Amino acid sequence: MTAEKPPRQTLKPLDDALAELLGFAQPLTGTEQVATFEADGRVLAQELASNLQVPPQDNSSMDGYAVRCADLASGWVALPVSQRIPAGSTGAELAQKSVARIFTGAPIPLGADAVVMQEDCDVQADGMVRIKAAPKPGQWIRRAGEDVTQGAVVLAKGERLTPAALGLAASIGLSRVRVVRRPKVALFSTGDELVMPGEVAPEDMKPGAIYNSNRFFLKALLTRLGCEVSDLGIVPDNRAATIEALRGAAQSHDLILTSGGVSVGEEDHIKPAVQSLGHLDLWQIAIKPGKPFAYGWVGVDAPVTAGMAATEAAISALEGASGAHFIGLPGNPVSSFVTFLLLVRPFVLKLLGCTK
Question: SS3 sequence, 185-219?
Fold first, then answer.
C-alpha cells in the first residue's frame, strides 16, 4: 500500500499577491526640499499651486504686427510702424492708425486687439505696412492666464516629477520643491556560483560559475525609482552569513532586496534566515517566470506573527517597528526582472506615496 502524497501547495494568484504586498507598503513620512533642477523622478510631498498666471500678460504668438482691428475695417490699408516690441520688453499704448512691430512672446501693447502675422503683411519702400487680410479681434494673441491661472494647483501631492512637470514647476517660479525622501534599499545577491564581471575572465571561470547580472539591473532599476541603494554585493551560501547580512541591513534601511536563495533547495537559506529574524507573509506566487518570490519583515523583534495577512492589525504593528521590509527575488535573471517590474516597482512607488 503506497503512502498518500501530501496536498500540493496552492499558490497565490498575482493580483492577490500584489494587493497584499501593497497593503504592507505604508508611505514614508520623511520629506526634503531639493532644487527643481535635481528633482527629476522624485515624488512631490505637497501640492504645488501657482502664485502667478502663465503667461503673465497678453502676448503675441507670432512674429508680425500688433494692430487695432477698427483701423483695418475698410480692407487693404497701409499704416506706419509706431514702435517695435521685442520679447522681454513692454511697448507703449498703440497710437491710432498705426501698427507695432511685435515678436513672439512680446506683450500686446495697450489699444491693440489683434496680431497680423508678418507673412500677411507687405512692407513698402516708404516703411509703411500694408495689411493683406483683415484680422479678427484676438487673432494670434495668447491671453494672460491661458496656460495657468493664479491659484491653480498645477501638480498634485504624490505626483512623480517628469521632465514636463519640472518645466511646469519652473514656469511658476519654483526653484525648489518639497519631495518624499528617498527610500533606503539594501541590495545583495546570494550564491557561491556568482562572480563579478571583470574579476574573472570567461576562460578562467570555474565549472558552474556564472556572472552576477542581477546586481547590475536591480541597482539600476532601484536608482531610476529614486531609491538610495546600498550595494552589499554577494553573500555566501550559508545560513549564518545570510542572517548576518539581513540583520545588518535591517538596522538602517527601509527595504532589503535580495536575488537568489528563495526556493526550497538545501542551499536556499533566505526563508529560514528571514523567519529567524522576523517573518514571511508571502511565499511563492502563481506566475511563471517568477514563482519563487518572497515578502516579509526583518527585525530584532518580529512585529507580527509569521504569515499574518496585510490586515489593519498587521499594518499597525509595522508602524514604528525596528527593522525593514524584505523582498526576495528569484535568482534566475528573467524571473528576477519580471518580478521586479510586477511587484517590487509598485511596492516602492507605494512607499514613496506615488498616486499614479
Answer: EEEEEECCCEECCCCCCHHHCCCCCEECCHHHHHH
How far is CA 180 from each of CA 4, 32, 133, 162, 253, rounded to the nearest angstrom? 54, 6, 55, 15, 15
Task: Name the DSSP letter for residue 61.
Answer: S
Our measurement of the distance from residue 181's CA atom to the centroid of its chain's CA atoms, rounded to an integer in Å, reads: 13
Task: Tell me which residue of 240, 248, 311 sits closest to 276, measured CA to CA.
Answer: 240
Quick check: 170 and 186 in contact, CB under 8 A? no
Q: How many CB atoms lie within 10 A of CB 185?
A: 27
Mean pLDDT calculated for residue range 99-117: 97
Q: Alpha carbon of 125 to those of 83, 129, 183, 258, 352: distances in Å?
A: 18, 9, 68, 78, 65
Please tell me the distance from the alpha carbon of residue 144 to that of residue 247, in angstroms, as a whole number.
58
Cell output for 97: 492708425
Q: What is the pTM of this model?
A: 0.79
Q: Do domains 14-28+182-351 and 36-54+151-178 have the same CATH topology?
A: no
Question: Which tens digits make up the pLDDT trace of 229-284?
Answer: 999 888 888 888 889 999 999 999 999 999 886 655 555 678 888 988 999 998 88
For residue 254, what are the contacts with CB-CB under 8 A and spacing of at least 6?
28, 183, 184, 185, 324, 325, 351
Q: Please state the domain extents for the chain.
A: 14-28+182-351, 36-54+151-178, 59-142
Q: In this prediction, what percent of the chain has a pLDDT beyond 90?
A: 65
Of the CA atoms within 13 Å of residue 221, those in its CB half-sphere come to 22
Nearest to 99 by CA among 75, 121, 85, 79: 79
Q: Are the beta carbons of 281 and 309 closer than 8 angstroms?
A: yes
Q: What is the CATH number of domain 36-54+151-178?
A: 3.90.105.10
Fold type of domain 59-142: Molybdopterin biosynthesis moeA protein; domain 3 (2.170.190)
Residues β-bridged to residue 84: 101
For residue 313, the one-letter residue type is: A
The answer as to CATH 3.40.980.10 being correct for domain 14-28+182-351 is: yes
Length of the chain: 356
Q: How far apart are CA 23 and CA 18, in angstroms?
A: 8
